[in-house]
Design goal:
Elements: H1 7-10, E1 15-20, H2 26-34, E2 46-50, H3 55-64, E3 67-70, H4 85-97, E4 109-114, E5 117-119, H5 121-128, E6 137-140, E7 150-151, E8 166-167, E9 174-178, H6 179-189, H7 192-202, H8 206-217, E10 221-224, H9 235-238, E11 249-251, H10 256-259, H11 284-291
Parallel strand pairs: 1-2, 1-4, 2-3, 6-10
Antiparallel strand pairs: 4-9, 5-11, 6-9, 7-8
Helix pairs in contact: 4-7, 6-8
The protein binds uridine-5'-diphosphate and manganese (II) ion.
The site of uridine-5'-diphosphate has 15 residues, from helix 4 and helix 10.
GO molecular function, one term: glycosyltransferase activity
GO cellular component, one term: endomembrane system
Keywords: Glycosyltransferase, Membrane, Signal-anchor, Transferase, Transmembrane, Transmembrane helix
């Protein structure tokens, strides 16, 4: 039986979109988002979670109605170029606190995004509508080397009491959690220090820690979707160029994948691309014009 959605839900106004970024990436990565998909969503549901003030992006956010959130509680990433595990977990834990601000109680869903993802919001809204919001939902895509369940190690003291010893996790860049599951695992993951400490106890980064918390501490389960992609895969091969309109989350490879043996310039292929690779290495501008040929940036 199909559930009747309120206009509020079908417009995606019950979904919080939280993008984690850092000041040093603003110039390099944010233009791809602010020039493209962020113009197609209701900005008031989008929270850019960064670590410093930035006049240009505070202004651009204001123009689109996007919340610009500075969280400095986690300090600086000391181990650049590889940020410390505690620091990144702390940043995600801080993003999660937004769900518990009194002005944000209307959100039934928290969707986390890295700053190198193109989101097709209409498709996300349709997908999320299939999940009852009062379930322990966790939606994402397992990382390629980790399609198999991840095993808890003996050192991971926090979950010693769990009878299960395996869990699945949605890999890094993009996943959604229902408020119902968040409420259950709040003490471990909501708040910078809480998630930082949980990661430290589990000896895992934030995506694995969240998977472990959902499945072993909260009794939830990862629902897989093949419409979310991450740059741990060969994007030109993995994303069929004829299906771009149906996808939800499309990244490009610009992070550690580029530097540590991943595919250099990992990006989707866009048919009849409006921009050359030099003009648009992420391919996000070309993708945007493929989806919305009338958009102002399209030639
Ligand atoms: N990030 C951050 N602080 C840092 C480094 C990275 O908040 O010091 C964020 C970054 O903006 C992105 C996410 O963490 O949203 C993943 O970073 P990146 O894409 O560089 O790494 P990879 O995807 O290769 O793990
Ligand atoms: Mn990345």
């Amino acid at each position: 039986p199909s559930r009747k959605l309120s206009d509020f839900e079908s417009a995606g106004n019950n979904i919080m979109i939280a993008i984690r970024t850092t000041k040093k990436f603003h110039q390099k990565r944010l233009p791809y988002l602010y020039d493209t998909w962020l113009n197609k969503v209701n900005g008031s549901n989008v929270f850019l979670v960064t670590d410093a003030e930035d006049e240009e992006y505070q202004e651009r956010s204001k123009q689109l109605g996007i919340h610009y959130v500075v969280s400095s509680l986690c300090g600086e990433s000391l181990l650049w170029p590889i940020p410390s595990r505690w620091y990144l977990c702390c940043r995600t834990g801080e993003a999660l606190t937004l769900m518990y601000k009194p002005q944000n109680i209307q959100y039934d869903w928290f969707c986390y995004l890295d700053d190198d993802i193109y989101l097709i919001m209409e498709n996300l809204i349709k997908l999320i509508a299939k999940f009852p919001k009062d379930e322990l939902s966790y939606i994402g895509r397992p990382g390629t080397p980790w399609e198999k369940p991840h095993k808890v190690s003996e050192k991971q003291t926090l979950i010693n009491n769990s009878t299960r010893k395996h869990y699945h996790f949605a890999s890094g860049g993009f996943y959604c959690l229902s408020r119902t599951i968040l409420d259950k695992i709040k003490p471990w993951i909501v708040g910078g220090h809480n998630l930082g400490d949980t990661c430290r106890q589990l000896l895992e980064p934030d995506d694995l820690t969240i998977g472990c918390a959902v499945e072993l501490l909260g009794g939830g389960k990862l629902s897989r979707t093949l419409l979310f992609h991450h740059h741990g895969m060969n994007l030109a091969k993995a994303v069929n160029a004829n299906t771009l309109k149906d996808q939800i989350a499309i990244p490009y490879g610009c992070g550690q994948m580029c530097k540590y043996g991943g595919i250099v310039d990992n990006a989707i292929e866009v048919p009849n691309a409006a921009f050359s690779f030099d003009e648009d290495p992420s391919r996000f501008r070309s993708l945007h014009c493929h989806l919305y040929p009338q958009a102002t940036i399209c030639k």
